[in-house]
Amino acid sequence: MKKKWWHEKVAYQVYPKSFRDTNGDGIGDLRGIIEKLDYFKELGVDIIWLSPIFCSPMADQGYDISDYYNIDPMFGTMEDMDELLAEAKKRDLHVLMDLVVNHCSDEHEWFKQAMKDPDGKYGKYFYIEEGKDGKVPCNWRSYFGGSVWEPIPGTNKYYLHMFHKKQPDLNWENEEVREEIYKMINWWLDKGLSGFRIDAIINIKKVLPFRDYPADRDDGTAACTVMLKDAVGVMDFLNEMADRTFRPHNAFTAGEVFNEKKEELPDFIGDDGCFSTMFDFNETVFGESDRGWYDFTRITPDDYKRCCFETQERIDDVGLISNVIENHDEPRGVSRYIPEGDCTDTSKKMLATMSMMLKGLPFIYQGQELGMENIGFNNIDEVDDIATIDQYHVALDAGCSEREALDIIAYYSRDNARTPFQWDESDNAGFTSGKPWLRVNPNYTKINAKDQVGRADSVFAYYQKLIALRKNPEYKETIIYGKLVPYMEDEKNLMAYYRKGENQTLLVIGNYQNESRVVKLPASVKSVLLNNYDDAAISSDGTIHLEGYQAVVMEL
Ligand code: TEU
Ligand code: CA
Fold it and tell me: Which of the four pLDDT bands, split at 50, 70 and 90, describes residue 108?
């Protein structure tokens, strides 16, 4: 793998709407981010990814863009964006924006023109199909439920939306569309962006002509993802885009790729791949079922371990993987991957160690560094997210009670990650002086940045140490071969792996349970580099006594 400027860096995802509000409208804004750039430096991160801040009706929280060339007034102005880029550059922070080009908003000018003349120039910017015998063109189900086809009033035609009906898919088969997209990407890169996180990009290649797939639900629909296995040629689009935009700018790109085929990995993230990195979603998609969240299998510590290692071994040296514990599409990781009732600062630090020391580029999601947790829901009216509301109804339709349905969405909803950032113990956690757009987690008086920054035993301080260790010149060359310590592989609730370099071998070990245990070490210990307890009881007989949820990084 060739070294690039982003290797050994650590990235941080900002969800602007929930990060910090400076004008009292209850919505986070760019000025709120500008004022906190030193917070990112104090944590030790290098790359900042901003979830979308372009003009948008916010049907899907900004992932429905109505103007790619302007900042939505709710977040601020283009001058604010220019100031953010300039202030970030002064601090050697790289800024990424979110590239959402599988679809745009139905309020984008292109789509408005298309609806006026579905057969005209702009109609060809989208997928517009005639119905079959008065029915939709095919039985695919949107990511957010219901058909992917929306009727065009006054015609027997429909337009395609893999996501919400206010997110019409752009027709990537149309070269004019691709040219429009490349022009926009270059415009932003020329403004000084370091790159992009690339949204839902695996969906841009459709199986044509559109056809039904065997239904996986009683309503006769099939998950739209089912077509991905038959969609051939996405790499042609991605390489063309990279050649026309990313590569000439040496831009950093993080692809949001799901369902990729193993043989495609070099094309995605290899030395000559179209992206700099892609995310490990193995732990995220574990236990999924097309029938809905009510039918999912919840992940255990051993599942988590296996998912992490399967990715590490699959990626091996092909390219750079990006490891996440959570993001804006997922629940809070500490509430998901730590067994119920065991969620403490100690176990949060253990989880952070297990993920952050893996080979790859860590993306920390806002609040993860504080150990922010799921919020829970008393009723569906507390939920804003379209995906969660859909899954709530899917659970009820499947026969779940109201309480069961609320418990299911409380565990999986991405609104858990979108509650306002918890800055301090003042009203609304210091996020806003107004009414927050989404409920603040009531635990903000106990979990907030003001309490943790500067406190040596806080989760925040532990993340600082983890990031510093990853960057420590003495150890940053250690790369994991992705192998468990062989005789520990089948030990229940024990996660242990090597990081090996030319001259060092590190052992990363986590006791993923409340009960303490004694573990035989594979070699003698030169030094303990990180520990979420005050000390590590290493005995002369070559064993270590691990307390509940103890994590230790040692040099062997
Ligand atoms: O998510 C794309 C995606 O693959 C979905 O499965 C997503 O994980 C799901 O909608 C979560 O319930 C991207 C963005 O990250 C997501 O926020 C957007 O909703 C989606 O694309 C549409 O732009
Ligand atoms: Ca605001």
Answer: very high
From the list 60, 106, 199, 390, the catalytic residue is: 199
Give 279 or 476, the one with higher predicted confidence: 279
Domain 483-555 sits in CATH 3.40.50.1100: no
**Residue with CA closest to ligand 1 atom 8:** 329
Topology (CATH level 3) of domain 11-106+172-460: TIM Barrel (3.20.20)
Q: Quick one: what percent of the chain has pLDDT higher than 90? A: 91
Q: Is the CB of 143 under 6 A from ligand 1?
A: yes
* CB of residue 163 inside a 6 A radius of ligand 1: yes
User: For all residues of the chain together, what is the average pLDDT?
Assistant: 96
DSSP string, 271-293: TT-SSSEEE--HHHHTT--TT-G
Buried b (16+ CB within 10 A) or exposed e, 259-280: ebeeeebebbbbeebbbbbbbb
> What was the ipTM of the complex prediction?
0.95
Q: Please check the confidence at residue 92 and state whether its pLDDT lies above 60.
A: yes
pTM higher than 0.90 for the full model? yes
- Dihedral sign, CA of 42, 48, 51, 52? positive
67 is catalytic: no
How do the domains of the chain map onto residue ranges?
Answer: 11-106+172-460, 483-555
The residues near 391 (Cβ < 8 Å, ≥ 6 apart) are 145, 292, 293, 294, 408, 409, 412, 413
256 is catalytic: yes
Residue-wise DSSP of 373-388: -----SSGGG---HHH
Residue 323: other Cβ atoms inside 10 A: 23
